[in-house]
Specification:
The protein has about 550 residues and is of the alpha/beta class. Among the domains are: about 200 residues, Rossmann fold; about 100 residues, 2-Layer Sandwich (GMP Synthetase, Chain A, domain 3). The protein has 17 helices and 25 strands. It has a nine-stranded mixed beta sheet with strand order 2-1-11-10-12-13-14-15-16, with helices on both faces. A seven-stranded mixed beta sheet has the order 7-6-5-3-4-8-9, with helices on both faces. A four-stranded antiparallel beta sheet has the order 17-18-19-20. The protein starts with 13 loop residues before the first helix and ends in a 9-residue tail after the last helix. Bound molecules: adenosine-5'-diphosphate. Adenosine-5'-diphosphate binds next to strand 14, strand 19 and strand 20.
């Protein structure tokens, strides 16, 4: 082997904040604090404080490889942890505070967190479980002296006091880029949550791919607001991407209602934002009700569950905002695909182009995708034949922390996504369902996502979910579950009439039920498993 003679500089997360502090030092990070007021400072200050945090970790005895948990919203202090903890060589374990207390206990014990940092919002929650957290040596409450609550937590320290005692000079260590940097558990709709353990290398390669023009297209000119939480797929990597590109970073803290989000967008000139569809449903509702606009907002990346075509249209027509759909999972860091345009697609008729761009999108260089049909063969690129989707990438998981769930990769090193998808001639992937949500009717598959998408297109429908319910002859038939918009009450017949021209005849739901709200998962997605339980004994009309 003749080796190249180029420098071998390890890809380190700390290099991102170092770069941002040096070359975008005055660019702002603006947060809505948990205490209430808006907090603003710069990348230069963020780096100094991340170094103070790293020094504090040394003093607390946190060693490289140790896990440090966080239960926190998107704020500047959580941002500092992304760099202070990983930069020091420890592993940031972002815990989803919306999980059940039992699950939180499970994952903190499974991760063996040494310290847990928490926002004021979660003091009561953690007090309730603290005596079951076997490995935790102490707690750090992410606030200042003035707001320190009285707490039963043993060894509770105040974040600001901790930092104040430290100097902002810390030489970021260089070590093996394959070292673990952060840990995030998937919500685990079945079984226990499983940990995805990222590395410095995977994080940087993912960030480089994700900020390209064909993906999130970020530059220093952007003002970006991750509404997607830092505890869910690292806020889709935006804490890293922002430092890499020097964008202004706007963090919404605990307030994710439509009015609070709109206020920040307008006050901080936000140009780009990311979240799951349910969050943008709230924003659009608020905009419609209040008549307010969001002129600075140029584009939003929406994913985590399928984006309804009607949402893409409303953003475009009413607010001039481009929606770019994103597909990904905790296991893919999270970027898998994005629905950005190519010249080939730009040249299509408007209707065709919109149909292609409403799909989950194309892969970036660095991630390979294969879709295997029921016959075990790669499906043709015809946009209609579907199969199980697998991925291979330097930023995709090879397995779960401590081997949970067993070996995952196939012989070629591909990871099973648990999603069913199609691929079209232009290279755009479309998710038809999660494997476990597919409705199997008479040996054929019905896509619940397509039905939901069509149902949400009805003007009176706020949210829709479709599940398969037992049918004696067909095995399963679709049931449409609808939340109507405020003050509207569409009829069953009106909804079925709306669907009739839009879906195959045999896909038409056998019944429609109306509910006040849909159960959501800890990551803001419609909880299909819960719906299936709720409607387990549902009798369809013709049965
Ligand atoms: P959780 O199971 O906790 O929700 P993830 O957020 O990692 O974990 O979920 C990833 C899954 O979310 C994907 O496998 C896919 O089923 C779904 N998903 C993500 N983005 C989309 C999208 N744009 N359209 C449809 N489904 C999506």
């Amino acid at each position: 082997m003749l080796y190249g003679l180029m420098q071998d500089v390890p890809l380190m997360i700390s290099a991102l904040i170092d770069y941002a502090a040096r070359y975008h030092g005055r660019r702002e990070i603006v947060s809505r604090s948990v205490e209430g007021p808006i907090h603003r400072y710069t990348y230069a200050e963020a780096e100094a404080r991340a170094k103070q945090l790293a020094n504090a970790l040394v003093r607390l005895g946190v060693k490289p490889g140790d896990r440090v948990g966080s239960l926190a919203w998107n704020t500047w202090r959580h941002f500092e942890m992304f760099y202070g903890v990983s930069g020091h060589g420890a592993v940031l374990h972002t815990v989803n505070p919306r999980l059940f207390a039992e699950q939180i206990v499970y994952i903190i014990n499974h991760a063996e967190d040494r310290f847990v940092f928490l926002d004021l919002s979660f003091v009561a929650l953690v007090e309730g479980i603290a005596d079951r957290l076997a490995t935790v040596k102490g707690f750090v409450i992410m606030t200042d002296e003035a707001h320190m609550p009285a707490t039963t937590l043993k060894n509770a320290r105040c974040y600001e006091t901790l930092l104040k005692a430290e100097r902002p000079d810390y030489a970021w260590p260089r070590f093996d880029e394959r070292a673990a940097s952060s840990l995030c558990y998937t919500s685990g709709t079945t079984g226990n949550p499983k940990g995805v353990l990222y590395s410095h290398r995977s994080t940087l390669l993912h960030a480089m791919a994700a900020c390209q023009n064909s993906a999130m297209a970020l530059s220093a000119m952007d003002s970006v607001m991750p509404i997607a939480p830092m505890y869910h797929g690292n806020a889709w990597s935006l804490p890293y991407l922002a430092a890499m590109t020097g964008c202004k970073l706007v963090l919404p803290g605990p307030k994710m209602d439509g009015a609070s989000i709109e206020e920040l967008i307008n006050a901080e000139g936000v140009t780009f934002s990311v979240a799951v569809p349910t969050v943008f449903t709230m924003l659009l509702e608020h905009l419609e009700r209040s008549g307010r606009k969001v002129p600075s907002l140029d584009r939003v990346a929406i994913g985590g569950s399928a984006v309804p075509a009607s949402m893409i249209e409303t953003f475009r027509e009413a607010y001039g905002v481009t929606v770019v759909q994103i597909w990904g999972m905790t296991e893919t860091s999270p970027l898998g695909t994005m629905a950005t345009v190519t010249p080939e697609v730009a040249a299509l008729s408007e209707t065709e182009r919109r149909a292609v761009l409403a799909k989950q999108g194309r892969v970036q260089f660095g991630l390979e995708l294969k879709i295997i049909g029921q016959d075990g063969e790669t499906v043709p690129r015809d946009g209609t034949t579907f199969g199980d989707m697998w991925v291979r990438s330097s930023w995709a998981a090879s397995g779960y922390f401590k081997g949970e769930g067993g070996a995952k990769l196939d012989n070629d090193g591909f990871f099973p996504t648990g999603d069913v998808a199609t691929l079209d001639e232009h290279g755009y992937m479309r998710i038809t369902d999660r494997t476990k949500d597919v409705i199997k009717s008479g040996g054929e598959w019905i896509s619940s996502i397509d039905l939901e998408n069509a149902a949400v297109g009805h003007e009176d429908v706020k949210q829709a979910a479709v599940i398969g319910v037992h049918h004696p002859k067909w095995e399963e038939r679709p049931l449409l579950i609808v939340v109507s918009k405020e003050g509207r009450s569409p009829s069953r017949e009106a909804l079925l009439d709306h669907l009739r021209p839009r879906v195959a005849k045999w896909w038409l739901p056998d019944d429609v039920v109306f509910v006040k709200e849909l159960p959501l998962t800890a990551t803001g997605k419609i909880q299909k498993s819960r719906l299936r339980e709720m409607f387990a004994d549902y009798r369809l009309p013709d049965v």
